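note to self — DONT lose this again. spent like an hour looking for the file last time. sequence + predicted structure for the chain T wanted, 63 res
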Amino acid sequence: MRPTPTQQPALLTTSSTDQANEAIRVFLRARAGRALRPSERAEYSRLLKVYTRALRGEVEKAA
């Protein structure tokens, strides 16, 4: 019997925290070796907020 989406092992799914973390990594890799410009700092701050919200959501689910 094939597992339904809710029965998928956790390792095969990507959490919103993982997605947000990867977005931050991609963003910073593209700018490696130099300081962030003001507009880039604003975007980095936004990405950190998304990551923090996702992480808090996962912690709340676990509690």
